[in-house]
Fold this protein.
Amino acid sequence: MTSMNQTTNTNFHRWLWATCIGLLAGPFATAQEVNRSGTVDLATRFASMELLFCFQGKGSNVPYDGGVLHEAYARIPAMRAGHTIVAGNSSGSIPAAYFCCFGFSDANVRHAEERLKHGNRDAVRNMESVNNKLSKISRGKSTEILHSELREYVAFALGVSQWQDAQSIDEIVRRSSAKPQFPCLIVACNKEVLEDRHPESKSFPGRLKEIDLSNMQVSWKPEVFEYYKNHPERFQRDHPELVLGADRGIGRAATFFVDASMFDLLSRIPANERIADLRLMTDASDVALAVLASTSEPSYFPPVVDPRPEKILTSHGQRILESVRHRTYYGGYIISMPAQDVRRMLPGIHVLGTGWRHNPLVARTLLKNWLLADCEEIAYLSEWWADLEVNPDAEFESHIEFRDLSGEDEYQFGVRRAKELFDLNIGLPAFIKIPHYNYPAAAAISPVKPTDDMFADGDANSNHRTLKTMRGIGPIMQPSGGAH
Amino acid sequence: MLPLDNSHGMTNALANSRREPNRPKSAFAGVVQVALSLELPPSLGESHLLVHATGTGQINASANRSKVHVHAGISPKIQATQSLHIRPAEITGDSPWITAHLTTRLTSLQMDGLLGRCTLIEKIASQAVQKRLTANDTSLSEQIERTVRARVEDEGFELAYRVNGLIRHGLWDRIASLDFAPNVRLQNNSQGIRSDIDYTRKDQLGALSPPPEIPSKVYPNLDLITWVHESVANNALDSLNGMRLDEATIRGVWRVELKLTNDDWEKIQPAKIPAVITLANRSPLTLRFLPQSIELQLRAAACEVDGHVEDVQARELRIQYRLDEDARGLQFARQEIEFPESLPSVEEAIWLKALERFFPKTVRPLPKFRNTGFPQFLRIGYLNVSRGWIVAGVSRVSPSSSPSPQVPKEISR
């Protein structure tokens, strides 16, 4: 591995390196072991990166993202040149996982557009119906549908064409030879850490925990921690899934599923500054787990237990099972734009999102009461990092709840909106907030092609120069139209 | 439409026969079309829905023994009723009443070999097989009943929750999210389903006057009418004591909850940091619904603009929106923000800068919107503010036209 590092200057070697890391890490690699592969020259691999492309989930509206992908691929040469990192949350994890395994190419983009446009999403759409959900909840029925309803999409992500007769996700994984080979990041929230229901009445918020939005660290409130320290038996009874540590810390609110290269890159951010645990993906089962973990939003699918928690890097090398008895994921809704850590390590890249749908007040309040975090507050902080976000227009929004558009219609909405915003080179959420860690990490990698809009105006000699965001993606876009 | 396909019901009847390699022992396929209708019998204290279903269809059945092949047409006739009771806290359903009658008609009989040439044997076999098919009617009708029952139950409950959703999502949940538990009563009357909701705690006042009447000519055009007394808002707003309200949340209330918007909000604009107002710890907000205007008294303790905590004192101020009409239709137009006490001009400017982010100069109804419970686009078809009440009527937008909302006469004068 060391000799390979000394010669890594070509794309081929970069690819080979990623593959070797994947192969060597294999099924037995742990988070700590792969982290030690840091002798690799990350700068060689990442300095040429120009774009973080985020597939932002919008429930079953995946064809819209297919339309945005079409337009972006036609206009952004960095996607064709392999200078793109892909990220995804919720249903956006599906295309993110696909491009993680197979990379961006004309054929792969065309295939992804087709699958996103024509995949059968009936089961999810039926489950999304608000009245249907309320009706079921009231009758004591579960609203969640089986993960097996995602077989077609997991098969797409893993490159399995013969999936129809597979009865389970496991069967699809067995049929796949896909591996995470291209830089990728998929978001999931950590259920045990976030859940904050009242111990004696699960329908009321517990208000026992607090979250630091600068690094997404969740802790016990001081008085609660003191109480539980003195009443360990009560702690066991109230929180059987958690371990009371020496300090108030419980863990991070979110996990990023990452390929080996991104694992190495993001683990260089000091643990107290990184906003998520890192979960290494080395094979198809890890990629499938990432998709399930990110799509399993509350009320959509049952939460997902990580069968191999030893592949998680928490903070300070702490082993995950020292703070929780198991790790369960509950959807990627929590971070709308997972760009902070990536941009801090790669200050030269631009950030493009396929668009987010903000929660109405009632859903926001319910989620906060249930899972501690105010997802809108986090969205303001996350979306500060966007350079352009292809947010749906009001007309598309009006169709979302009613699910009355065909896949083709939704796809065309995505194409049209992306065209409109790319032409204007603007597209941002209405509201943002400035995150605490808004400057490059100490170990940041300088870009091969520096741009003059990397930093906000201010003290050029400061150690903590604020990164400029919300810039549009002009510098990485070709003038108009494209070869695609 | 309920598609029916190969079933075990028919299979059992001919289970003893030997199967030919390429022919299924028995099969049926076809569709049953079910039409649903709704009845609202008068009721008090709850809303009573009767969901009626009638179904007809055509099922092709076939049975194959080693040398006998029978085809029959089965015509089902189904009637079902699901009775649902919507009460404020729950929706219950009686067990659906359902009948399915099947008429079986033999369409063809084929016998292989020499036996098939004998008319007498053919007749005997025909009767025997037809008898067996008829025996299978019971299991088939049971299966159809089960399928229709599930459909009627599912559709019925979904409809009931759609009705309840208008109340729950439209009003109840929004107030309940402020830790406020409203009291709700429902009834059916000749005009539809009526819901009365009290948003008062024991120590709070409610409406002392009845809601204003809706002009009779307007009434038939409205699909959903909401009367809100100012006490509802004021009782709920009491729970906002000391709360930090941000601009984004309030914009959500304007656009999503109240269906009102400002022209600037519909344009593509740079992102901004939401302004924040911290409310006073006692009686932070009071609303008054005056003739054709809404007055808000606000007691604010602090504010933040563009992420900076501003150097201001706790202040009381008054904001008034007049309901008027311009060439584009109905709008609420804000008057000057008034400070009852004099304050330094610099501080006044800071407060105004913050407040204008929450309370834009004009807001007008969204041209069209969609809401849970109505698949069609909706518009505010009637709006009135009068003597402590605000009344909003919503009607469906026909695809071809979008007339401006009906305005009470006072506005035109």
